[in-house]
Each structure stands twice: as C-alpha cells, then as structure tokens.
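Fold this sequence, please.
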Amino acid sequence: MFEKRELVQRLRADHAQPEGEGGDFGMHVIPRMIRNSPVHAHHFRGLPGDLQPYWRDVGTIEAYFDAQMDLCNVAPQLNLYRRDWPTYTLWHNDPPAKIVFEEEQGRRSEVHDSLLCPGVVVSGGKARRSILSNLVYVDEHSSLEECIVLRGASIGKRCRLRRAIVDKWNRVPDGTVIGHDPEHDRQRFHVSPTGIVVVPRGYDWPVG
C-alpha cells in the first residue's frame, strides 16, 4: 500500500534507472524507499512452527487464483483466523452471511470448503471451494466450483460456474454455463492458459 504521491514519484524515479536496475518492486523500488522514506512491514506469519513467512507473488491470473484457493484449504499457508496475529481487512457494514433452503426435493443449499463474506446469500445453490465476497447472491439450483465472485455480483438460477473469476456487480443471467466449454468461453471472455475464466465488470450479457 502506497500513498499516491509517493508511488508516482517512486515509479518515475525507477523508470529513469538504467536497464537492469529498475522495474521490480521487491528488488528495486521498495529497497530504495527504505533508505529515505518511512516504510512499515506487516509480518505475515504462516502456520505455528513455520520458519518461512508468507509471501505470494500474484502477478498473473493463475498466481492470484491459486493464492485465493489456498485460503479454502483446511490448513492454508496464510491463516486468517489466528487470534494471536490477526489480519484485519476493510470492514463493510453488511448483515451476516445467510444460507437458506434445505428441501429434500428441490432447493437445497450446500457450501463446502468456501469463504463467505458478510452480506452473502446462498439461496438454494451450491458452492465448493469458492470465495464469495460481500453482498454476493447465489440463486437456486446454481453451482459454483472453485470460483471467486467479487463484491455485489449475483448468480442467477440454474447456473454452472467452474474455475471462474466474476468481477464486481455482474448480474449473471439464469442458465449461464461458464468453465465447462473452453471454446465457448474464449468467444465471450478472457481465458487464462490453465483455463481460468475471467468475467469482467460491466460485461454486456446477451438477452436470452
């Protein structure tokens, strides 16, 4: 996290460096800042007993996706639930997450190995190894598998999403299928080399 003025100044100074002496935050920008600016570090410790602190480079879609999916593991590399060393994030004043419907025949919610943020509603849908950001809504008979759904997005009825990143405030229409047909996905969205589908914010969903 940088103050804007400081970041702009540092990037311009880094750009003026000779080839090979600039272009990387960890190797060039931050070390130069430490010499003459107030720099503070948070110790992202791993599991108890780990000697190596937590560090992930999320410069690619794959790296970002893997870092998020790791949080769904029983013992993630970064444990967000440690009370002796809490990691505080931005707080949204939203209601608690809510999972509704348990009908034997019909609507039945199931959530496994997933993170649900405040304001999430899973209404008769299913989520496995997924991260649902605050105010996300999953409608009935829809299934999410290894998905990252960002703030305020809603998933319609009878949708099937797998290995997808859905950006903020999207309204995914009923019956949408993503992550099951690579060729069809490439016609509509950006698909990473390993098949992760990225649905951008403001995507113009076709009617019907």
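The longest strand covers residues 143-149. Residues 2 and 8 are 9 Å apart (CA to CA).
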